[in-house]
Structure formats: structure tokens, C-alpha cells
Amino acid sequence: MKTTKMLLSVLLVLTMVFSLAACGGASEPAATDAAPSTAPEASAITENAVYRTLYSSELTTLNYLITGQLNELSISANLVDCLVEYDSYGHLLPSLAESWESNDDASVWTFHIRPGVNWVDKDGNVVAPVTANDFVTSIRYVCDANNVSATQYAVSRIAGADDYYNWTAYQMALPSATEGTDEEGNPVLLYQNEDGEEVVLEEVPEAKVEDIGVKALDDATLEFTLTGPCPYFLSTLSFGPYMPVNAEFLEKCGDKFGTSNDTLLYCGAFTLSTYEPQQKRVLTKNPQYWDKDKVYIDEIRMTYNAEASSISATMYQSGEIDQATIPSNLLSAMMADPATAAKIHPTRSDTSYAYWYLFNFDPNFDAEYEPENWRLAVNNENFRQSIVAGMNRMPALAANDRVDPESMKINTITPSGFTAASKDYVYYGDLAKYTEGDNYDEAKALAYKEKAMEELTAEGATFPVKMLMTYNPTVANWSEECQIVEQNLEKLLGSDYIDVIVQAGPETGFLTLRRTGEYAFMKCNWGADYADPQTWTDPFVEDSSYSFIYKSDDPETKAIFQEYMDLVNAAKAINTDMEARYEAFAKAEALLLDHAFALPIHISSRSYQMCNLNVFEGQYASFGLASQRYKGQHLYDTSMGLEEYQTAYAEWLKELSK
Hints:
Blueprint lengths: L4 H18 L27 E6 L14 H7 L7 E3 L5 E3 L2 E6 L5 E6 L4 E3 L5 E4 L3 H10 L18 H13 L4 E4 L5 E6 L5 E3 L13 E5 L2 E5 L21 H7 L16 E7 L3 E6 L13 E6 L3 H10 L5 E3 L2 H9 L1 H4 L3 E2 L3 E10 L11 H8 L2 H10 L2 H6 L32 H5 L6 H18 L5 E7 L6 H16 L4 E7 L6 H6 L4 E7 L27 H18 L5 H17 L3 E7 L3 E4 L30 H15 L2
Parallel strand pairs: 1-15, 19-20
Antiparallel strand pairs: 2-3, 4-5, 5-12, 6-7, 8-9, 9-10, 11-12, 13-14, 14-15, 16-23, 17-23, 18-21, 18-22
Helix pairs in contact: 10-13, 16-17
């Protein structure tokens, strides 16, 4: 048996060091029209610390075992603790597990549950102790298809988890199945899938819930048996399906579990003492919390207002709330006013999400946009390279962050600073040349264009190639960004070569366009599920709903894709040598970039805010729910300004590197 807790802490420290270096670290912010800071020094509120905010998006459920929505899980993260947690520097810490160890190949993990932790009701009354069986109950609940958990995929690495999920899904489908025949006339059972299509119901072997690889060896000892070696397993544990639930309470609530604050139990830093949809939510410090000395906010009051985004700045300035996001159309004016500039600073850079412009290899858009012509173009590498080399990302980034767009930029599929072994992952192998470089090169773009036009003309393609670029109209600044991309690409490459067509998608169900391939070139994103580069391969492998490279019939594209999959599978098989594992994944990722299958652009957009919290005090990790937690944060009597933010950033980095 080997203890891995200290190793993970060291790796996460390295992750954060590189994250700051990649995002600009403690360097000076980009030049702006900001007025000189005149902010008074902030003081922490030590008595009756009540943090007041607005919200405009209502929850659909409080059931943390089924939801995949961040706004819902961000509430749960403060109500229910996980086995592990993180400090403000990304160090892995014990939480509901006091300690843990794994076997030699990291396929079996044993956790020792902290004694004396209790479940309480919304008023803080003790209901029951937290035991190892509470984690067994939650995993079994998530793996039952009848409960329709949106995060069941996150427990698939547990032995037997998918088998039981598939068995229960099969049992659910049987009552509505009808007898029919397949294409060869053989008798089969048919059922309607979630898309309304009639498909064959394949028989699934019986699986038992007891065979899922999570067991309570006793009240204080929890064991996970995985499908194979998983060196990053600890980093998966700060997510909804790994939160515990009391079996007796869950059975008592039945389908009503998580429908109100009365149908939840709490073992986290706060209870949800008040929950009135479209009115207010109140989180109150849990008086029975095992680590209550590190909870400095007594109450969090969230008030519903459909116009929160437009009125929060005014309400902050009048002293009614303690946090306000500054709309982009007001940012310049407020930064130019000393009274408001002194209180405005950015939110923390988030490396858990990455955005890339992707080419679609399975075009399913309308005939007027010439999908077959696009199919020829997208399978031509010189065409893709011309777009990548011709994309000047900085003007596009400035549409999202006018103060410091450089801090958002990424050059690789995996964001800089996401994870590290002896160094940041993006400096392994051939990725280093991308990390230190830039795709934009006008001369190369024009050279690629010339080659592409010659080759595509010979194949029967016509010019200009129509390049349908779709955006979500509900996402701030995306329309403006698309217009900038269109103008820059057409200006450099010429309207004789490409015709970038910017089109708004639907306000609801936008992701359907990506999943069905109704675009040619579009910005897509992915959020990390755990601290390993494997998580960033998911959008590019077979059966994903990104790019559809695997659906291409072009021999050259198919050969490159097969090479990529071979490299990914080889990397996945390396589980004890992290240096070799990272080198192998870096080789696979570099292959996608070498052949221009993806154009990285930015991490999650930062917003600007006035906020009486110091973000650098909060828990942090580039995955999971750590950054959603209020534990460890103080409430201050005023907000920091941009200069103070940079100073705090520098101090945070200094402490991190000790």
C-alpha cells in the first residue's frame, strides 16, 4: 500500500505555480483608461458577517446527486462536504476522509472517515452521524438509471458502475418495448430513444447493485475498487455524485429528496436555512460543522431579481449588496470614474474550462451553405492551416476582456496551468513549441491558401468556400467576437477564398447545433472533470459530439485520427510513471495541433466586479467545485480595486512558491 496524499499536494502546488505564470502571474495589467485607485483599506467583518448577493437564474433541483448544472452544484458545494477538499493554494486536504491510501497500481482506494461529523437539518439540529455507508448510498443512487443522474458518467471508473446503470436502464425500457424485426428480419424488441427514434433494444446482462465497487468495510472505512489503475482518482472526488447521502433519510424522502431545504440533510459549512424560489435563499453557518473555526461568514443572503445583471452595480454602490458584476457596456465608463474604479477588479482566471474554434467534419447544415463543398475543404489540411495561421486572436479576445485580454489566451487544447508533474503539462514534448509561440502568421496563412486553392480546385471544390460560423445569442460578446473573426479572416485571406457567414443560433437548445453538426466553424468548450490530461481528450475521441473527425471518409483525415487514437490509448495505459504519461498525452495533443484540427483561443472569460470578498482566500482547484465554496473566505467592508487585486495576486503567488 502507498500513501498518495502528499504527492498530490505537491503536484497541485506545481499546477498553480505554472497557472499563474501562464496567465500573466503578478505582472502589470494591460494599459487601460482606469482612474487612479483611491480605495480605502478593507477591513474584515468579524461579527455578524452577512454576505448579500443577487441572482437571476432559479434552481431546478437541490438534489446534488442528479444535477449537472453549475449554478445548482455551487449551492450544494457549500452544504455537503466531500471526502477531500482544497486550500486556497490548490493543496489537497482531508475533509470527510481523515486519510487514505491506494494499492500499488492505484486501482483500489481506501478512505478513513473522520469521526464525530454529523448530518443536521436546515436548523442545525443533529440527525445522524456521517459514515462510510453514506458514500456507498450516493454512488448506488447515481448508478440507478431510474434516478436519471446527469453526472453518472463521473463514476464510470468505479468497477460495476456502468454495468448496473445499463442494467437498470434496460429494465426501464422493457415495459414500453414492442416486438418487431431488424433489417435482416430477425425478431427484436424496439423502443423509442430520447430523440424519439425507434431503435433496437439490446439485451443487457443482469447486474447487481452489490457488485458496484464501493463498499463500507465498517462505519469508518470506505473502499473503492476501480475498473483499472487511476492515479488521478482523488481529483474526481470533489463533485456531486461523490457527495454522501444518508440512506434512511433518502428512503424517507423518496422522489421528494432535494425538492426543498427540508428534504436535504447537511454536513457542510452551511445549511440552507431559507429557500423560497424566485424570492430568496439564505445559507447559514452550520453550528455543528466539524471545521467551523475556518468558516468566517455567518450568513449568505441571495435575493432573486430577474434584472440582477443590470441593477447590481447600482445596488452595490448604494450599500444594498456586497457583490455586483459590471456589464461590459458599463465597464469603460466605470473604470474611468475614480469613485467606482477603486472598487472594480476581475474575477479569478478559471483554467477548468477551455475554448477552441473547431472545424466540423460532418456538416449537416442547409444546402444554401454548400455542405458538400465544405466537406472537401475541411478535409484539406492546407485549408485548415490557412485558417489557423490567419486567425489573429487578440482582437477577438478583446471583445470578451477589454482590460486584459492577454490573460485569457491559451495556445494548447489543455490550458496552461491545468495540471503538472515535474513541470506544467503544456511544456511536455511538442506542446512546448505551441505554449511559447503563436499561431498567427500572415505569410504562412497566405502560403497555405495558395496550396489549398490549387489542391481543392483539382478536387472539384468551388470558391469562395462558405464557412458557416454559428454563435449563441444569449452569451455576452459572442456575436461581436464572431464579427471580428469574420472581418479579420476575410481581410487577410480574401473574399475570393472564404465567405465567413455569421449566424445566430437559437436562444434555447443551442448545443443541439453542435451535437448535430449544423455548423462549419464554431467556438466550442470543454470543462475538466479531474486533474489529468486525459480529460481533455474526450471531445476528440470517437462518438463525441465535437468536430466529428471520426466520421470523415477522407483517407488522410482517417489516418491522422487513427494515429491520434493510438497515441491516446497508449497514454491511458501508463499509470505509474506520471512523466511518461504526460509525455504520451502531450504527443497526442500536439498531433491535433500539428494538423490544425483545433484552434485554441481562451480559458473561461473573466468578468469584472465589485465584491467584498478576497477571491484569493477561497478554496481553489482547476476542476471540481472547490472554487464555489465560501469556506475560508472573510467578508470585508469594501471591494478591492485593480491595483489591489494585482498586489493580492502577487502575494498569493509568493506564498504559493514557498
